[in-house]
Design goal:
Elements (H helix, E strand, L loop, with lengths): L3 E5 L12 E3 L10 E4 L2 E4 L7 H6 L3 H15 L3 H4 L9 H15 L5 E22 L2 E2 L4 E2 L12 E7 L18 E5 L5 H10 L4 E5 L20 E4 L1 H12 L5 E22 L3 E11 L13 H14 L6 E8 L7 H8 L3 H6 E7 L10 E3 L10 H14 L4 E4 L8 H5 L4 E5 L8 H7 L23 H20 L13 H6 L6 E2 L2 E2 L2
Parallel strand pairs: 8-9, 9-10, 10-11, 13-14, 13-15, 15-18, 16-17
Antiparallel strand pairs: 1-17, 2-5, 3-4, 5-6, 5-12, 7-11, 8-12, 12-14, 16-18, 19-20
Helix pairs in contact: 2-7, 7-13
Length: 516
């Protein structure tokens, strides 16, 4: 998750969906009677949704039972991966999608359930190594969706320092042909730098950071011009660049054994049969993990929270339709949620009043994090969502902190299409500060989630306090807006896919990886 921006100590009171979608469930005659009032379907036998009672129905035992089930599902991938995982394309992820669908099916016709299948390119790196002179750079990281080096074998050439950050083909001199380009991060996406290097005949590319940190980026959608590309920390890159600028010749060997393959994967969408379908309250979590582990916190916790809230919501009728979504391929660059948003018609887009993102609800060394989604930079209503989370934590007597709204989760496609969005999290690979340890507990100087994107992200990696608290907050957010959107800013403009492509929002990330 994103780097912290500021800490807020809050002491309060103690306590037709488009895009190749396939309908899965038909109404059952055994369900309670419904009637249409002013075009809105209402269940006359149930009470109207209430935040306090919906929150009270959230129990940690039920959440942890689902977490155990999700880990068992991840184990279905052991035959192919030698460890549990729910990465897209795996048996574990396919079983995750089936589990969500089966759980929704048990809820009868309260929800209209559909799936949305879409194609993605999945990338995996089996082995990599970068040697500069006689030194193996252990800090070098292959870019996401990088191609392999030629024939999946090591390639050797002299390093060539590229001018102007490599954003134009003219930045690459003739001598880069057959050699390895060294490029400074900045001013354009990593994919542009790699393709420009490829067009110039480079056998590989190295992009170095502008600061001393490592560089974990992605090239984005693969194109034939991309070459095998590493990211390295600024401290290493600047030292090499300085040597090159003083005329030194530095040989290097790059090796990336990588595989890119096309697969299909699946989003799951469930919208209440009742409530106003022209005023949709949308929320989502991603159903996939990285290949390295089972992803029980990231984002099994969000997947589970949504399932449990969706289950408990069936006890009530709603005034506004509620749409739950389980996105696939978030870890590959927010692909499922972006596919969904890109395939909304203008009419369907405008029906979505807001989107709430729930990614990593239960980090073991948690902080209660709220996306700092301000209306100045985002669609009107994003700040109202942020303020709802602030108010709830305050009323519970809980502390909270703001984090950057920088593109690290599935709200991006909605923001780029004019739909207000926000969300909460509990932290990923960021470092908990001394101040945060004082107000949230836990260990200062350690990651919020020490098992982030690792094999140990299992059931034991879930903080039960944060899990229950944040699932109750999700229940509150659903109940609040399912009851009334009267004071929430009205939608006035929808951005189509073409408009969104012409004017991208300045997000630094697409999911867990930097894009520029």
């Amino acid at each position: 998750m994103a780097v912290l921006s500021r800490l807020a100590i809050a002491a309060g009171l103690a306590c037709s969906i488009l895009g190749q979608q396939t309908p899965l469930s038909a109404p059952s005659s055994r369900e309670p009677a419904q009637t249409a009032v002013g075009g809105v379907t209402a269940d006359v036998t149930k009470p109207i949704v209430d935040s306090e009672t919906l929150q009270a129905s959230i129990k940690i035992d039920a959440l942890m039972k689902r977490a155990e089930k999700l880990y068992q599902i991840a184990e279905k991938s052991e035959h192919d991966y030698n460890h549990p995982t729910r990465v897209i394309g795996s048996a574990g992820h396919k079983a995750t999608v089936k589990y969500v669908l089966d759980e929704l099916k048990h809820l009868g016709n309260y929800y209209k359930v559909s799936t949305q299948e879409f194609p993605v390119t999945s990338g995996s790196v089996h082995e990599s190594r970068l040697t500069v002179g006689d030194e193996v750079l252990k800090s070098a990281t292959p870019m996401g969706l990088t191609p392999a080096t030629k024939d999946n074998e090591p390639v050797t050439g002299d390093l060539v320092l590229i001018a102007n950050q490599g954003c134009q083909p003219t930045d690459f001199p003739a001598q880069v042909k057959g050699n390895i380009a060294l490029i400074l991060r900045g001013n354009c996406p990593f994919g542009d730098k790699s393709s420009n290097a490829g067009k110039a005949g480079a056998v590989a590319a190295i992009i170095y950071n502008t600061d001393d940190d490592g560089l974990n980026g992605t090239l984005g959608d693969p194109i034939p011009e991309h070459v095998a590309t590493f990211g390295i920390p600024g401290v290493a890159g600047k030292a090499i660049a300085n040597r090159l600028s003083h005329g030194e010749t530095i040989p290097a060997t790059a090796y990336i054994d990588a595989e890119l393959k096309k697969i299909n994967t699946t989003n799951v969408i469930a919208q209440t049969s009742g409530g106003d379908p022209n005023n949709v309250v949308a929320l989502g979590a991603h159903s996939d993990s990285v290949g390295e582990g089972p992803g029980i916190n990231d984002d099994g916790s969000g997947t589970i929270s949504l399932l449990e809230v969706a289950t408990q919501l069936t006890k009530y009728k709603v005034n506004n339709a509620v749409r739950f979504a389980w996105w696939a391929a978030e870890e590959e660059g927010l692909l499922g949620s972006n596919w969904y948003a890109n395939h909304l018609s203008e009419e369907e887009n405008l029906k979505i009043r807001l989107f709430m993102d729930y990614d990593m609800m239960a980090s073991p060394n948690f902080a209660y994090q709220i996306y700092d989604s301000r209306d100045k930079e985002n669609p009107a209503g994003s700040q109202a969502l942020r303020d709802l989370y602030i108010d709830w934590y305050t009323k519970q007597g809980l502390n909270y902190t703001f984090i950057e709204f920088d593109g690290r989760s599935d709200y991006v496609g909605f923001i780029e299409h004019g739909i207000p969005a926000s969300g909460i999290a509990t932290g990923a690979e960021g470092i908990k500060t001394e101040e945060e340890a004082k107000v949230f507990g836990g260990v200062a100087g350690a990651w919020y989630d020490p098992c982030y994107h690792q094999l140990c992200d299992d059931v034991g990696n879930v903080n039960t306090t944060a899990f229950e608290v944040n699932t109750k907050l999700i229940a509150h957010s659903v109940a609040t807006y399912a009851l009334s959107l009267e004071d929430f800013p009205k939608r006035t403009e929808a951005k189509t896919a073409t408009m969104a492509q012409k004017k991208k929002t300045p997000f630094k990330y697409r999911g867990p990886k930097l894009v520029a």
